[in-house]
Amino acid sequence: MAAAAGASSSASASRPAAKALKLNSNNLGAFKISKLFGAPLIDAGRSVTSVGFDDRGDYLVSASDDDKIHIWDCNKGRHVKTLYSKKYGVHLARFTHKSTAVIYASNKEDDTIRHHSLIDNTYLQYYRGHKSRVTSLQMSPIDDTFLSAAKNEAVRFWDLRTPQCQAMLPVQGHPVIAYDASGRVFAIALNERPSVSLYDVRNFTARPFLVIPISDDDFLSQFSMPPRMPVIASLAFNPNGLLLVGTAGDVHYVLESFNGHILYRLRGHEGLERVQNEDLSMVSESGASGQECGWTPDGNYVFSGSQSGTIRFWHIPHHQEQPADAPRPMVQNVSPSVSREGHQGASRAVAFNPRSAMMVSGGSKVALWLPD
């Protein structure tokens, strides 16, 4: 399996070197479904709610609303094991920096976050404190700390080694969170007043050092009056500091995180807000899982699932970082440069392997994509 250009170089020296594949519209256009997994692994009528790769790109974890966690071997393209969380439910499953353990949020009984060993199927730790549903969960890219966010309650900072919350920020609304590539900055988006706030991890409880209002009234007024900002469902930084604001509607945005300017408006896909299913939604009215879009490892393309199942790719033009006092630019419309069909039904959760030319899409089935 070819390595994706832009992947980290910290892989074990014991792994044979793979020929790097520079991602472009031609080879992204050659992606097709290589393996497809549905029932009985995922119960009929149920759906995947999250997907994620481990740091090395060797394994994939998926969570679904049938209370199952699935582990997949990316090198062999096969299912490895199924774990169950029937009593507590499972959502937002994430690998820690070890491929032998995951953290995930509960969506039954309580709102505890669990640290689960994949080796012996035991709980390694419980992280209690949230009093409402966890809507976002992110591992730090640099150490064993992580962030969680719960609606109308708080964003919390944790260390895997201890069950106690290390710090918290009260919030009102439906928060979405993300770390930047350095692990020193994190972002919080709130839908109730569409905005993104940037914080310094080292000064967790201090005020944000930048607040970015997300307003696109002139464009959105073409479709509704008054203009309606679609639900913000996800945030993701690329290695160059651009911030992807994913929405449940038919548009995503790319921001310059240094000065807060909206640079690009990504159009041409069918948003997940048309898929009404409260149990699956990060925000119940949105239909979105919070993983409907993301960056390729090189940070040059945004990819997104859709209501129709089609996977879209947008090439993001090279952008020279501007000073904080630079005039606000005109927002550029960007259309998909690549569209790939084959996923049946809504593609609710998508992810790109951090080290290999592989993509996953999840809905009623899990699809592994490789270039032909």
UniProtKB/TrEMBL annotation:
One of its GO terms (cellular component) is Set1C/COMPASS complex. The keyword tRNA-binding does not apply. Its main location: nucleus. WD repeats lie at residues 41-82, 127-168, 295-316. SUPFAM superfamilies: WD40 repeat-like. GO terms for molecular function: chromatin binding. PANTHER family: WD REPEAT-CONTAINING PROTEIN 82, WD40 REPEAT PROTEIN SWD2. This is WD40 repeat-like protein. The lineage of its organism: Eukaryota, Fungi, Dikarya, Basidiomycota, Ustilaginomycotina.
